[in-house]
Amino acid sequence: MRDRIVSELAKNNTVLTPEAMEYLEELEEPSKVIEELTEKEDKLPFPVCKETISCFVDDVLKDVEEKSPGSDRKDRDPREAIEVLKDISGNSTCTGGIDDFSKYFESRFKTLRSIIRERREGKKARPINRIARRAGEASTICMVRDIHSTSNGNKVLTLEDKSGEIRGFISSDSEAYTKNILEDEVILAKGEMWENNGDFEDTFAIEEIKRPDVPKLNDKAKPDFSGRIAFLGDIHVGSSAFLKDRWDDFTSWINSDEAENIRYLIIPGDLIDGIGIFPNQEEELDIIDIHEQYREAARLFKAIRDDLTIITIPGNHDIVRNAEPQPRLPEEIREMFPENVLFFGNPSLIELEGVKILMYHGNSINDLSDMLPQVTQESPITAQREMLKRRHLVPVYGKKTSIAPEEKDHLAIEEVPDIFVTGHIHRCAVDDYHGTVLVNASSWQTQTEYQKMRDIHPEPAKVTILDPKTNKVSIREFN
Ligand SMILES: [Fe+2]
After folding, report:
1. Predicted structure pTM score
2. What is the distance in A from the centroid of ligand 1 to the CA of 46?
């Protein structure tokens, strides 16, 4: 199979990256995917990367969905109270071409720059080519392309915008140093263009850094919201560590009078455990067929009262492309579920009776905990806070979270949500950041062997219940 793929691509003067080959091998008919790809595209990029393949597969799936009869069954929102503000599903522009990434980063830069410009300090900022012309005080809104530490502990950065690039310098004793700047961040940098004994040096000494951030809202208008929203995530149906008994307890409770004021249930991804997500996963599965896993999840959802609206997005264990933003689950899966289950992409921003909810599975929490000392896996809320400060769900490109280069940056947090929910880490936590409620939804899977190996301690079988009118929260535990 590998040989066939390699020779087919060689005929088209290109090769696959090892990552793309690995991804391809997990697909059902890898050779067919490559045949269709070479047939459809006039010119393939060199090399063909994983994103190219995943975007192509996604587009093919989308085509199939659009052509299949009755596919609008779940396209209409059965609940008029829900408005979709942002969702990649059906709107993917990613073609996998080389240009896509430069367009993507341009969109990221423009989006975040316009947020910074709204800040008072942002108005004085000048483009890089202007500040680079003379010595003295300056400020600019720029993207951080790379960061290096010097032997004496300072930092040297490459900063860029559309007008050019400049070398930035952050001294270890400056306030800017404490900000833990990451590559690809868009910031407002204030400082001084250096002059050295009368010689103009092409270095910008950064003293202060401002992020796009979220403004503090003290007197937020209370929404006219009548019921409660419940959150739980990462159900992992199919895994032998899925807590079936506790799920049944949850079902009895959510169907009881005690929970009748809960009108919505939000599940930020990983409905099922999937297949081939981590090494030797099959040894930890009760259901080894991915469609069977979804069928079982649908069966569990059918037992829940149908006047509860269940809102879901995919996670890294679900069946859609791995690169973010991920579209909602495909039609063949959606149609297994009852009408009260709604499917959106990862991430999505929706408005529920006037309450804006940003839903994101949370893959990048791992990346942020690797890079930032203030972020830990045990406390995913700390990562959510860093995302809001940077107004981006995946602040750094090129780590474990793969990004599909869409023309528009769907991962930027353009609008400030009232509620920001993630999952993925299998912890249960709630907090507040500048008036946005942060929720990390608990999971329904106990510690797996894989998690034991990686020292991950889940807090399963907990449901977070929020009253959006008062922001009062309670957590119900099932054990
Ligand atoms: Fe998960």
Report:
1. 0.82
2. 34
